[in-house]
Amino acid sequence: MSSEESEEVSRLLGKWSGDDLEARAALMPLVRSELSRLATLDADQARVAELRIFEGLTLDKTAEVMSVSIASVKLNWNMAKAWLTQEIKMADVPMPAARRANETPANTSIFKLTYSDGSETQMFLLPEGDTLVGRSQVCNLVIKDPSMSRRHARFEVREGRCFVEDLGSSAGTCKNGEFITHAELRDGDVVSLGQMQFAVREPAPEQVRLSGMHSFTNATVTLPIARFAASRSPGTDAKAREIDSNRLVAMLSDVSCELARSTSLSQILDRIIALTFEMTHADRAFLMLMDEQSGELVPRVARCRDGSPSHGATISRTIAGTVFKDRVALLASDAQLDSRFEASESILLQDIRSCMCAPLWHDTEVIGILYVDNPESSRFSAGDLNLFTTLSNYAAVAIEQARLGARLLEERRHRERLQRYHSPRVIERILEGENETGASFIAQERQISVLFADIVGFTAMSEQMTPPEVAKLLNQFFEAMIDVIFEHEGTLDKFIGDAILATFGAALAQQDHAVRCVRAALDMRKALASFNAKRHQPELRMRIAINSGCALVGDIGSPKRREFTVMGDVVNTASRLESGATQPDQIIISGTTYQLVKDEIKARALGSVNLRGRSGPVDIYEV
Prior knowledge:
Blueprint: H1 3-17, H2 21-41, H3 43-53, H4 59-66, H5 70-90, H6 97-102, E1 111-117, E2 120-126, E3 129-134, E4 141-142, E5 153-158, E6 161-166, E7 173-175, E8 178-180, E9 182-185, E10 190-193, E11 196-201, E12 209-211, E13 214-216, E14 220-224, H7 225-230, H8 238-241, H9 245-261, H10 265-279, E15 284-290, E16 297-304, E17 314-316, H11 317-326, E18 328-332, E19 341-345, H12 346-349, E20 354-362, E21 365-374, H13 382-419, H14 424-437, E22 444-455, H15 458-462, H16 467-487, E23 491-496, E24 499-504, H17 513-533, E25 542-558, E26 561-567, H18 569-580, E27 587-590, H19 591-597, E28 604-609, E29 618-622
Parallel strand pairs: 3-4, 12-17, 25-27
Antiparallel strand pairs: 1-2, 1-11, 3-5, 5-6, 6-9, 7-8, 7-10, 10-11, 13-19, 14-18, 15-16, 15-21, 18-20, 20-21, 22-24, 22-25, 23-24, 25-26, 27-29, 28-29
Helix pairs in contact: 1-2, 2-3, 2-5, 3-5, 4-5, 9-10, 9-13, 10-13, 16-17
């Protein structure tokens, strides 16, 4: 092994162990165990790390042994190092206390993607540099989902920042529901590649991590949240805190108002931490929320009283687990002597002797934890814990309200968008289907029926009218026709001058799409008769053509502007039937449509017609 490569591996092992030989020996079983676990996710990454660490092979030699390119080895090596670094940070490794007391946590940002692969949640660490994602085997992250392109998107990590770029994919790339071509990603963003969704997670420098290296040896004060929430006057132990009851009520009122004024979740989290410092004498405050996908506690804010981030901080995994699972608020008045948590050590090492931790309790669920600590012994009292717990309850309600508000806003925008195309009944079924399956308007093939309708002689008619009169007439005509289309659960694709393009079976799969389409056409003819009867001007005449077949349906266009529409020969044929083979007042259907409706709707054969752009004749029928 070359000296350069030896130094690289040596530096890595030294970083993990703090250059302590005993610690390095203790780490080796953990490294082997983590490589075995990594092998179940990515065998190549695990094999590269094994050859580099345990067999001391250079990058060139590793590539030769594995019969792959050096570039591939470098990528897998970087990803394996990121995986191992993160897992070693999270593990309870029996390292010497003296080394742990002096160690400085690394501040390197590690971005990871979490996504659902069938029934399991998967995690993928993004290494420094580029990561290709798509269906092709040449991609670094291969996703065998038909909605994704072969080379769909590129993730790039550089200098602690993460970006995503769409590579001209057919279905597009979205960040938090908005189509993008290139965008920077932050912790909590959701990237959609086709129908696949990836949550971005970043253990930022100011974030805190859970650790098993904590030790508590004195009695603690615990407060069951269920009993606390049900008490007559929660958080009013003013005597213990030496706070006047009127001041306490005013303080809690201010808390409620402050949180109500905040809008976004990030604003609320920042305000919760600020209020925590105002209501307690804590030097540090941490807020963690449960990840809905993994069920793990994820750090969201870690801050010192002066506003600076708390770099490399740790929280006892035992305390966090107790508070979260047992639903109790906990006060450790003298952490160095607490006998219930003998297995931990970091509070001793960091000389922190007082901490409080309370669950963020909403309704019947715990959605996270709020934690504060102080370097001074017995800094917090039972009264502090009451006040702190009350704040955590207010905070949980505010967080859930922010989440609910964001969901309602997104649903409203989604519903408003759907209302442009679909009837209320179809909208409800679409929303129900999305909730059950996670489906969206990703372009896909479907069997549909297409209806084209236009006003006969409208160009000549409009020459005798003013523009406002033309607009008024079209609006009235379209309103009458669209009501009928929606009544039969059709979808409005677009208006083309005085013409209407409507589809059936596009937004939702409909076994009887052809029957619905033809019946809608018959009712449109009746609606036009009623429309003409109410007007004192020349009657409008209409022609309608219908064709059925397979089409590409969904959001189609550029990342800057997309529309729900349909594409394919079935659409072109319907358009040409309407313009070239349909007479005024006629409803013409193709032979394909006739075969789908002949058992329910009577139609008269008109023979075959040749249409521009088609190699053979098309059978047509009049309804």
